[in-house]
UniProtKB/TrEMBL annotation, chain A:
Residues 1-19 form the signal peptide. It comes from Anseranas semipalmata (Magpie goose). The chain crosses the membrane at residues 31-48, 79-97, 117-142, 149-171, 177-198. The keyword Signal applies. It is a multi-pass membrane protein. One of its GO terms (cellular component) is gamma-secretase complex. Belongs to the APH-1 family. GO terms for biological process: Notch signaling pathway; protein processing. It is found in: Membrane. This is Gamma-secretase subunit APH-1. It comes from the Eukaryota. Keywords: Membrane, Notch signaling pathway, Signal, Transmembrane, Transmembrane helix. The gene is Aph1a_1.
Automatic annotation (TrEMBL), chain B:
Residues 52-61, 336-347 have a biased composition (Polar residues). The chain crosses the membrane at residues 94-112, 145-166, 173-195, 207-227, 234-250, 256-275, 399-419, 425-444. It is a multi-pass membrane protein. Residues 1-63, 314-358 are annotated as: Disordered. The lineage of its organism: Eukaryota, Metazoa, Chordata, Craniata, Vertebrata. It comes from Anseranas semipalmata (Magpie goose). Gene3D superfamilies: Presenilin. It is found in: Endoplasmic reticulum membrane; Golgi apparatus membrane. This is Presenilin. It is an enzyme of class 3 (hydrolase). The keyword Transmembrane helix applies. GO terms for molecular function: aspartic endopeptidase activity, intramembrane cleaving.
Length: 227, 458
């Protein structure tokens, strides 16, 4: 969350400077600067996600060297999930909390001609953003770990596309639906990246007792101790 | 209002005394650890030399010496074990501190956002005599700096006074002072707080009910904090009085003065803990020399640590661990420190076998928990509360400050584990908090507002 905040800070700084250096009256220019600011912010977020990955990798190595069995207590996949989730939570909260706070107060939505569905669509968009960040975190860390740079590029590109789609608001059919399609695709991709498979789902749903594999695991564990 | 202002002298004095005490205490556990190491050296000289503290020197001296080799290997093993335990339990301690700090902040922010009283300007404390209602920016800045200087000097004077009292063993005076100030907090401030909350929600309460509620709350609080009580109740009371104190500060400190004071007090904290002649260091060292607990009721503890100040636990269940624990308690003062110093202490007591120590250590570390001075709670909450009280009503600023303070706390605990030295808790958190407050309020807020008005997401 801290890393995301710092990235947001830097992006705001860039936007702020650019706005104050430019003509305040020109609406088109201001809108263009806003687009630019949003794009810079997305790129900075991904850059900071990468920086966080590097930090966690170092911490992981440190934990592994000092732990009893040579493995760190938290796996990289868990760290990826947590990092994605925290990015998502802080991003979602920053996007929506002021809207929520305003929604308590007296007022009428869309009285000046804006869409009356502002609150509900904001809620759905925020949910999509939170889920997306979580999935992106998992995929990103895995891609960095396995050095699959095309995956990284795809994650960044999909973030840019998602942010760009929100520019189509209030034409909600064009923005919400594709964003949710992207969310579902990313979710499936993240699931398979994290090691899931159809078999896992079936096993989970059927709640079978895995006695044989436990015995196997135990005997598999014995080997290192014997060494 | 007038009566409140008239009383302000005595109660603010105790408030400030409390503040000064708390800022004196504000370096957390780490500060005691410094004193702890000093007392260890005093107690067990020979053991200390052979222990991890002396491992460096023994490494240099006994290079080719076979007889020392065994000692070195054992020391290295102990050191590794110690580091491991430090990092493992360090993470747990961080979480144990997150919860109370977060709770205190939540109480303060919830009150600020809902009760109008605490954001209204109704006068100032006598400690900040210069008004900020001046026409020019320069004059306002000057006034706030002067206010800060006065406030910090009051705090320094109080702290030094306290240290002098402690050195000359005027315990009755100190205890009386503490009891008076906590009485004031628990009764008067709670009464005002309850009154304002009831006013906000337009709930009527008759005087007999009010008296009953306040009396019970205050009396149980006094007993819990100064004598024995269930641990969680004591923690809850400490959180509540920190929140009340923070609310008083938020209300009565003028805008710019508050920010300059926050900055100045973190610098003061840094100096007072790290400088050799700092009052806080002297206080801790004196307490160490006498093997006494430093003042109860000013430290938040997250586990059952003192046998004096808590309800007697199920002693039968504890058994041998309790005995070792009590022995360790006799050897050093109650306000213990994070795991690594505990393991150091335990090693000095029984140096030879490492396996039994590990299990005892772990047991006792889990029981010990971690401590943080109430001053830290108060100033963290003041920062977040001031962020919440900004006229623009922006929640992003509050959240950003909250995250910044927690990250600062994490870093402080990390540095503590790395340096194993006394470290103050305020500077890093407050610095991050201030940076994030000003940058979020001025840079991020317009950006996010513009994005939200177009319903854009980044």
């Amino acid at each position: 969350a801290f890393f995301w905040l710092v990235s947001l800070l830097l992006a705001s700084l860039i936007w702020f400077v650019s706005v104050h250096l430019s003509d305040q009256e020109d609406a088109k220019l201001q809108y263009g600067l806003l687009v630019f600011g949003a794009a810079v912010s997305v790129l900075l977020q991904e850059a900071f996600r990468f920086a966080y990955f590097k930090l966690l990798k170092k911490a992981d190595e440190g934990l592994a060297t000092i732990s009893e069995d040579g493995r760190s207590p938290i796996s990289l996949k868990q760290m990826a999930y947590v990092s994605g989730l925290s990015f998502g939570i802080i991003s979602g909260v920053f996007s929506v909390i002021n809207i929520l706070a305003d929604s308590i107060g007296p007022g009428i939505v869309g009285i000046h001609g804006d869409s009356p569905y502002y609150f509900i669509t904001s809620a759905f968009l925020t949910m999509a953003v939170v889920l997306l960040h979580t999935f992106w975190g998992v995929i990103f860390f895995d891609a960095c770990e396995k050095r699959r740079y095309w995956c990284l590029g795809l994650v960044v590109a999909s973030h840019l596309v998602t942010s760009g789609l929100t520019f189509l608001n209030p034409w909600y059919e064009a923005s919400l639906v594709p964003i949710y399609i992207i969310t579902i695709c990313m979710g499936v991709w993240a699931f398979f990246t994290a090691g899931g498979s159809f078999r896992n789902i079936l096993k989970c749903l059927s709640c079978k007792q895995e006695d044989d594999s436990r015995v196997m695991m135990y005997s598999a564990l014995q080997v290192p101790f014997e060494d | 209002m007038i009566t409140f202002m008239n009383n302000s002298d005595s109660e603010d004095e105790t408030c400030n005394e409390r503040t000064s005490l708390m800022s004196a205490e504000s370096p957390p556990v780490p500060s005691y650890q410094d004193g702890l190491q000093a007392s260890e050296a005093g107690e067990v000289q020979t053991h200390r030399k052979r222990q991890t503290g002396g491992s460096c020197s023994s490494n240099n001296v006994a290079d080719g010496d076979m007889s020392d080799l065994g000692v070195r290997v054992r020391e290295n093993a102990l050191e590794n074990e110690e580091e491991e335990l430090t990092l493992k339990y360090g993470a747990k301690h961080v979480i144990m501190l997150f919860v109370p700090v977060t709770l205190c902040m939540i109480v303060v922010v919830a009150t600020i956002k809902s009760v109008r009283f605490y954001t209204e300007k109704n006068g100032q404390l006598i400690y900040t005599p210069f008004s900020e209602d001046t026409p020019s920016v320069g004059q306002r800045l000057l006034n706030s700096v002067l206010n800060t200087i006065i406030m910090i000097s009051v705090i320094v004077v109080m702290t030094v006074f306290l240290v002098v009292l402690y050195k000359y063993r005027c315990y009755k005076f100190i205890h009386g002072w503490l009891i008076l100030s906590s009485l004031m907090l628990l009764f008067l401030f709670t009464y005002i707080y309850l009154g304002e909350v009831l006013k906000t929600y337009n709930v009527a309460m008759d005087y007999p009910t009010l008296i009953l509620v306040i009396w019970n709350f205050g009396a149980v609080g006094m007993i819990c904090i100064h004598w024995k009580g269930p641990l969680q109740l004591q923690q809850a009371y400490l959180i509540m009085i920190s929140a009340l104190m923070a609310l008083v500060f938020i209300k009565y400190l003028p805008e710019w003065s508050a920010w300059v004071i926050l900055g100045a007090i973190s610098i003061y904290d840094l100096m007072a803990v790290l400088c050799p002649k700092g009052p806080l260091r002297m206080l801790v060292e004196t307490a160490q020399e006498r093997n006494e607990p430093i003042f109860p009721a000013l430290i938040y503890s997250s586990a059952m640590i003192w046998t004096v100040g808590m309800a007697k636990p199920d002693t039968a269940a504890r058994g041998p661990s309790q005995q070792t624990w009590d022995a360790a308690e006799d050897g050093r003062e109650n306000h213990s420190s994070p795991s690594h110093s505990d393991s150091q202490i335990l090693e000095t007591r029984s140096p030879v076998p490492s396996h039994p120590i590990t299990s005892l250590e772990e047991l006792e570390e889990e029981e010990r928990g971690v401590k943080l001075g109430l001053g830290d709670f108060i100033f963290y909450s003041v920062l977040v509360g001031k962020a919440a009280a900004t006229p623009s009503g922006d929640w992003n600023t509050t959240l950003a400050c909250f995250v910044a303070i927690l990250i600062g706390l994490c870093l402080t605990l990390l540095l503590l584990a790395v340096f194993k030295k006394a470290l103050p808790a305020l500077p890093i958190s407050i610095t991050f908090g201030l940076i994030f407050y000003f940058s979020t309020d001025n840079l991020v807020r317009p950006f996010m507002d513009t994005l939200a008005s177009h319903q854009l997401y980044i």
